[in-house]
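On clarity, I found the account of how folds are encoded harder to follow than it need be. An entry of this sort, consisting of the sequence and the corresponding backbone structure tokens, reads as follows:
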Amino acid sequence: MLIPNVRVPEFGLAEPASRDIARIFAVLANRRNRMREPTASSTLHRIRATLRAASNAAVREG
């Protein structure tokens, strides 16, 4: 799993739907770090870039 700290077992990433990805991002956006600060937007952008790269690689591989 690309996001090991998201402990939501109903997310199956074998064939993720856009609503599943949106739910993952909603969970991440509402989390707080050790300093009680919300997840930084730059972190969410990096996660999105990683998911997009993984998706593009999967499409290329067939």
Q: What stands out?
A: The helical segments are 18-29, 41-61. The chain has a mean pLDDT of 79. The first helix runs from residue 18 to 29.
